[in-house]
Amino acid sequence: MILALAGGVGGARLAQGLVQVLGADELTIVVNVGDDFEHLGLHVSPDLDTVMYTLGGVHNPETGWGRAGETWAFLDALGAIGGDTWFRLGDRDLAVHVERTRRLRSGDQLSGVTADLCRAFGIRHAVIPATDDRLRTFVDTDEGELAFQDYFVRRRCEPVVRGFRFDGASTARVAAPLAALHGSAARIEGIVLCPSNPWLSVAPMLAVPALAALLDAPDIPVVAVSPIVGGAAVKGPAGKIMRELGLAVDVTGVVAHYGARVNGWVIDERDRSHAGTIATTGHGVCVTDTMMTSPARSAALALEAIALLRTLGRR
Ligand code: FO1
Ligand 1, from 48, 153, 194: best to mutate by most atoms within 8 Å of Cβ? Predict the structure, then answer.
């Protein structure tokens, strides 16, 4: 069983590649929930929905989040009565937030709700939230501490980042389906860190102690696909955050951030010149085209990540 840790858009794309090349009994996708928040009385799980919509083939390819062919009658009507419209909830997207909120209020766990929603979208692979416990990302900025979506959407990532806090992480347990897997004979062959934002999407997952322990397990190789290509983030604020944290905005800055937790790196052709440096720190390195511009490219990248993982697993 390979575990893929996926955050937002970049994570969803590689998850979409992995599901093409691994069977449902070979792959489990663990998704960040630090971006979750209560909005308009609804529990919104953006990263779970981005992965679910992408694997279900109904995602909006332009934005990476929300549904394709979306309409906005609800939001327009909400705006007309003075409601909050800064976080854009489309009419089709709304169905998931309403149903998830109803289920959670009835006492169901997020992992169970996610399994049922994914089944409804025709997804056969396991998509599991990092935890069923409450976990929320806060961003410490020059404007004070902001809740994640306030920073990311309302303020469009403009505040200068000083640090992060993952509220609830220290007592968060891995979600039941993952704990069950961890116990079972289905050995975890390895872990793939999808090219999600290391600070905003991956760190909240690694703040869950039992998940971090999996990465630190000596017999479980970890391969990461770099979210930084050619000195910039493929999408989102990772490059800006690195600069604000005083890190080199290149693939070596990301490698240094993860340190010995990651055993192998898949980096883009444009960063080939860094391969030697990365290899000297004992990492396996695969240099390839990491731009997931089509499902076929996502599948090809997934195969490269799995191949590197299996090379490391035999070390
Ligand atoms: N991101 C935005 O930049 N603007 C939005 O209005 C917005 C709405 C939205 C609605 C549902 C959803 O699942 C995600 C949404 N996102 C929006 C993206 C979301 O903030 C990010 O996907 C993650 O939280 C970070 O990866």
Answer: 153
What percent of the chain has pLDDT above 70? 98
The CATH code of the domain that includes 242 is 3.40.50.10680
Residues 6+ apart with CB under 8 A from 52: 96, 114, 117, 118, 121, 123, 127
Give tens-digit pLDDT for 276-297. 999 998 999 999 999 999 999 9
Distance 46 CA to ligand 1 centre (A): 6
| Gap between the Cα atoms of 262 and 259, Å rounded | 6
- State if residue 65 touches ligand 1 by the CB under 6 angstroms criterion: yes
Whether pTM > 0.85 for this model: the answer is yes
Q: Calculate the CA dihedral of residues 165, 166, 168, 173 and round it to 10 degrees.
A: -150
**Domain containing residue 22:** 2-313
Q: How many CB atoms lie under 10 A from the CB of residue 132?
A: 24
Say if CB 262 and CB 223 are below 8 A apart: yes
Any idea what DSSP says for residue 27?
E
Q: How many CB atoms lie within 10 A of CB 82?
A: 7
What total of structural domains would you count in the chain? Answer: 1
Rounded-to-integer distance, Cα 74 and Cα 92, Å: 10
Q: Kindly give the distance from the C-alpha atom of residue 72 to the centroid of ligand 1, in angstroms, as a whole number.
A: 15
